[in-house]
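Please decode residue identities from the backbone states below.
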């Protein structure tokens, strides 16, 4: 182990209920990141996440350069469930989501066949209240969930259903990068997604994925999915009632089911979210912060907030389901 790696690891502050924190005095964020890149990644490998404070990140260009230095490779987003603006150099805005609503714990793009192994978050503008990006250890969450629940999900996987239209959620172009039917159908076939065009021109899709995976480096089993976050029972009651009234349950922009197609009840969603809450680590954002998250080992969330909040996001180090010992990449009817 290099002296740089050892020194950085020794400087990480571990506190109950807070993410690992590394307070640095970086005169130049690019230079510091270049010098400590391997040590920083070693800290993420050890702890699953780390909040770096003191880099002084202040704009997209600087942040993009730091993202590129930390990541093995940045990636574009596909199959987005909500709009996100893409900037140059693999830098994205945070997902467009109402400021007064919680984004529950999830693993980014855990329903795709290729997903980011590393998430990077940079705070350019901290909110006046709330807006914390919480983290939770996926191995600990798996161990804390009821065994009969995790065993069923491990056996059957989970099913994501989506309905694309121009009124709610991500549009076809935002999700697939095109609105060409032929190109979308080809993408779905390659990525194990069932699809059906509706009479009104909307698209309905279904895809089944593993809910429990093994980390490609440690081999440890992790609860890795968006079962609760993308389920109808996580939506605000008035929002859910409106969407069901207008589009019907089969026309919701997204919903989740057991892998065999059975509906997931509100009690299951509540249980999952309660376990996540018990394992949440949180630290209020400060302008200039950088948060690195192992997307397989660590789930993340976003709390409601007040005031302006600008968080830049990098999706990095793509991983395929075949790399995490996942067995459920097919579909079910």
């Amino acid at each position: 182990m290099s002296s740089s790696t050892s020194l950085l690891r020794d400087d990480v502050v571990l506190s109950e209920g807070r993410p690992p924190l590394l307070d640095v005095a970086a005169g130049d964020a690019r230079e510091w990141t270049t010098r400590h890149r391997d040590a920083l990644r070693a800290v993420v490998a050890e702890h699953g996440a780390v909040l770096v404070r003191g880099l002084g990140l202040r704009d997209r260009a600087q942040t993009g350069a730091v993202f590129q230095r930390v990541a093995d490779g940045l990636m574009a987003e596909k199959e987005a469930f909500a709009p996100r603006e893409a900037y140059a150099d693999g830098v994205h805005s945070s997902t467009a989501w109402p400021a007064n609503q919680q984004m529950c714990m999830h693993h980014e793009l855990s329903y795709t066949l290729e997903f980011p192994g590393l998430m990077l978050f940079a705070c350019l503008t901290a909110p006046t209240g709330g807006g914390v990006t919480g983290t939770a250890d996926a191995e600990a969450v798996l161990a804390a969930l009821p065994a009969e629940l995790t065993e069923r999900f491990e056996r059957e996987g989970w099913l994501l259903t989506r309905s694309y239209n121009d009124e709610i959620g991500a549009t076809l172009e935002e999700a697939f990068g095109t609105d060409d039917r032929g190109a979308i159908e080809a993408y779905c076939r390659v990525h194990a997604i069932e699809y059906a065009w509706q009479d009104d021109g909307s698209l309905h899709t279904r895809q089944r994925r593993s809910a429990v995976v093994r980390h490609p480096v440690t081999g440890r089993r992790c609860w890795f999915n968006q079962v609760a976050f993308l389920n109808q029972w996580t939506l605000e009651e008035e929002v859910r009632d409106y969407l069901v009234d207008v589009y019907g349950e089969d026309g919701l922009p997204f919903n989740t089911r057991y892998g065999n197609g059975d509906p997931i009840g509100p009690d299951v969603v509540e249980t999952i979210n309660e376990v996540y809450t018990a394992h949440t680590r949180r630290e209020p954002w400060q302008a200039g912060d950088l948060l690195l998250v192992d997307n397989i080992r660590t789930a993340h969330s976003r709390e409601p907030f007040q005031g302006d909040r600008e968080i830049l996001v990098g999706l990095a180090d793509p991983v395929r389901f075949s790399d995490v010992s996942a067995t459920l990449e097919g579909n079910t009817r």
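Observation: DSSP finds nine helices and 17 strands in the chain.
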